[in-house]
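re the bet — no i am not wrong, look at it urself. input seq straight from the record:
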Amino acid sequence: MTDDQAERKALVPAAKVGYDQAARSATGKVPGSKLVDSDLKRSAAGAPEWHVKVAAADGTESDVVVDAVSGEVTSSSPEADQDAGDRRETADRLGKAKVSWQDAASTALGRTKGTITSLGLDDMDDGTLVWSVDVVTMNDWNKTTYDVDAADGSVKREHVDRD
Protein backbone atom coordinates (compact mmCIF):
# COMPACT_ATOMS: atom_id res chain seq x y z
CA MET A 1 0.00 0.00 0.00
CA THR A 2 1.35 3.44 -0.93
CA ASP A 3 1.53 6.37 1.51
CA ASP A 4 -1.42 8.06 -0.27
CA GLN A 5 -3.53 4.90 -0.07
CA ALA A 6 -2.65 4.48 3.63
CA GLU A 7 -3.64 8.11 4.29
CA ARG A 8 -6.97 7.60 2.50
CA LYS A 9 -7.52 4.36 4.46
CA ALA A 10 -6.98 6.24 7.73
CA LEU A 11 -8.94 9.38 6.81
CA VAL A 12 -12.02 8.26 4.87
CA PRO A 13 -13.55 5.87 7.46
CA ALA A 14 -12.93 8.46 10.23
CA ALA A 15 -15.22 10.95 8.46
CA LYS A 16 -18.80 10.32 9.55
CA VAL A 17 -20.14 13.33 7.61
CA GLY A 18 -20.18 13.06 3.82
CA TYR A 19 -19.51 15.68 1.16
CA ASP A 20 -23.21 16.38 0.75
CA GLN A 21 -23.91 17.10 4.42
CA ALA A 22 -20.73 19.22 4.62
CA ALA A 23 -21.90 21.23 1.59
CA ARG A 24 -25.34 21.76 3.17
CA SER A 25 -23.74 22.87 6.45
CA ALA A 26 -21.44 25.31 4.65
CA THR A 27 -24.12 26.82 2.40
CA GLY A 28 -26.38 27.08 5.44
CA LYS A 29 -23.70 29.09 7.24
CA VAL A 30 -23.46 31.58 4.35
CA PRO A 31 -27.08 32.35 3.34
CA GLY A 32 -27.79 32.34 -0.39
CA SER A 33 -24.44 30.75 -1.22
CA LYS A 34 -23.55 27.95 -3.63
CA LEU A 35 -20.85 25.31 -3.38
CA VAL A 36 -17.62 26.08 -5.24
CA ASP A 37 -15.26 23.48 -3.75
CA SER A 38 -15.12 20.87 -0.98
CA ASP A 39 -12.16 18.75 0.21
CA LEU A 40 -11.81 16.20 2.99
CA LYS A 41 -8.59 16.88 4.94
CA ARG A 42 -7.02 16.40 8.35
CA SER A 43 -7.04 19.19 10.91
CA ALA A 44 -3.82 20.22 12.65
CA ALA A 45 -4.94 17.91 15.49
CA GLY A 46 -5.42 15.01 13.05
CA ALA A 47 -9.23 14.94 12.99
CA PRO A 48 -11.10 14.75 9.67
CA GLU A 49 -12.65 17.99 8.45
CA TRP A 50 -14.18 19.34 5.27
CA HIS A 51 -12.68 22.50 3.80
CA VAL A 52 -15.53 24.04 1.84
CA LYS A 53 -15.54 27.14 -0.37
CA VAL A 54 -18.93 28.70 -1.06
CA ALA A 55 -19.90 31.83 -2.97
CA ALA A 56 -22.76 34.29 -2.65
CA ALA A 57 -24.72 35.38 -5.73
CA ASP A 58 -22.33 38.30 -6.29
CA GLY A 59 -19.36 35.89 -6.32
CA THR A 60 -18.05 36.72 -2.85
CA GLU A 61 -16.34 33.56 -1.64
CA SER A 62 -16.18 32.29 1.93
CA ASP A 63 -14.04 29.53 3.40
CA VAL A 64 -15.99 27.25 5.72
CA VAL A 65 -14.55 24.39 7.78
CA VAL A 66 -16.96 21.61 8.74
CA ASP A 67 -16.11 18.98 11.36
CA ALA A 68 -16.30 15.66 9.47
CA VAL A 69 -17.46 13.78 12.57
CA SER A 70 -20.18 16.07 13.96
CA GLY A 71 -21.13 18.09 10.85
CA GLU A 72 -20.75 21.33 12.83
CA VAL A 73 -19.21 24.41 11.23
CA THR A 74 -15.97 25.13 13.12
CA SER A 75 -14.96 28.27 11.23
CA SER A 76 -16.22 30.53 8.49
CA SER A 77 -14.64 33.59 6.96
CA PRO A 78 -14.90 35.59 3.74
CA GLU A 79 -12.05 35.13 1.27
CA ALA A 80 -9.57 37.85 2.26
CA ASP A 81 -7.96 38.79 -1.05
CA GLN A 82 -10.90 38.70 -3.46
CA ASP A 83 -11.35 41.84 -5.59
CA ALA A 84 -14.29 42.86 -7.81
CA GLY A 85 -12.85 41.01 -10.81
CA ASP A 86 -12.47 37.80 -8.79
CA ARG A 87 -16.04 38.07 -7.53
CA ARG A 88 -17.33 38.65 -11.08
CA GLU A 89 -15.37 35.64 -12.38
CA THR A 90 -16.72 33.37 -9.62
CA ALA A 91 -20.30 34.55 -10.20
CA ASP A 92 -19.92 34.00 -13.97
CA ARG A 93 -18.54 30.47 -13.49
CA LEU A 94 -21.36 29.54 -11.14
CA GLY A 95 -23.88 31.01 -13.60
CA LYS A 96 -22.45 28.90 -16.44
CA ALA A 97 -22.68 25.67 -14.40
CA LYS A 98 -26.01 24.25 -15.60
CA VAL A 99 -25.24 20.88 -13.97
CA SER A 100 -25.46 20.95 -10.17
CA TRP A 101 -22.74 19.61 -7.91
CA GLN A 102 -25.27 17.01 -6.73
CA ASP A 103 -25.78 15.74 -10.29
CA ALA A 104 -22.02 15.68 -10.91
CA ALA A 105 -21.55 13.64 -7.72
CA SER A 106 -24.28 11.22 -8.82
CA THR A 107 -22.60 10.81 -12.20
CA ALA A 108 -19.25 9.97 -10.57
CA LEU A 109 -20.81 7.58 -8.04
CA GLY A 110 -22.73 5.93 -10.87
CA ARG A 111 -19.41 4.98 -12.44
CA THR A 112 -17.42 4.09 -9.31
CA LYS A 113 -18.91 2.99 -6.01
CA GLY A 114 -17.04 4.66 -3.20
CA THR A 115 -16.74 7.78 -1.08
CA ILE A 116 -16.42 11.29 -2.48
CA THR A 117 -13.46 13.10 -0.89
CA SER A 118 -13.29 16.16 -3.13
CA LEU A 119 -15.70 18.02 -5.38
CA GLY A 120 -15.11 21.37 -7.02
CA LEU A 121 -15.83 23.63 -9.95
CA ASP A 122 -12.75 23.76 -12.18
CA ASP A 123 -11.57 24.63 -15.68
CA MET A 124 -9.97 22.04 -17.94
CA ASP A 125 -6.97 23.01 -20.09
CA ASP A 126 -9.29 23.64 -23.05
CA GLY A 127 -11.43 26.02 -20.98
CA THR A 128 -14.31 23.59 -20.40
CA LEU A 129 -15.99 24.24 -17.05
CA VAL A 130 -16.26 20.97 -15.10
CA TRP A 131 -17.10 19.61 -11.72
CA SER A 132 -14.01 17.65 -10.68
CA VAL A 133 -15.08 14.78 -8.39
CA ASP A 134 -12.71 12.44 -6.49
CA VAL A 135 -14.10 9.04 -5.49
CA VAL A 136 -12.13 6.73 -3.17
CA THR A 137 -12.82 3.01 -3.35
CA MET A 138 -12.62 1.22 -0.01
CA ASN A 139 -11.44 -2.13 -1.37
CA ASP A 140 -8.10 -0.78 -2.69
CA TRP A 141 -8.05 2.88 -1.48
CA ASN A 142 -7.48 4.13 -5.02
CA LYS A 143 -8.83 7.55 -6.00
CA THR A 144 -10.66 8.07 -9.27
CA THR A 145 -11.12 11.63 -10.51
CA TYR A 146 -14.03 12.41 -12.82
CA ASP A 147 -14.30 15.70 -14.69
CA VAL A 148 -18.02 16.15 -15.33
CA ASP A 149 -18.95 18.85 -17.85
CA ALA A 150 -20.79 21.56 -15.91
CA ALA A 151 -22.86 22.44 -19.00
CA ASP A 152 -24.12 19.04 -20.18
CA GLY A 153 -23.18 16.45 -17.51
CA SER A 154 -20.96 14.33 -19.75
CA VAL A 155 -17.77 12.84 -18.35
CA LYS A 156 -14.84 14.62 -20.00
CA ARG A 157 -12.08 12.76 -18.18
CA GLU A 158 -11.61 9.80 -15.84
CA HIS A 159 -8.31 9.19 -14.09
CA VAL A 160 -7.49 6.46 -11.55
CA ASP A 161 -4.75 7.34 -9.06
CA ARG A 162 -3.32 4.03 -7.85
CA ASP A 163 -0.58 5.54 -5.70
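see?? The longest strand covers residues 34-42. told u. also Helices lie at 3-11, 19-29, 84-96, 101-111. so pay up
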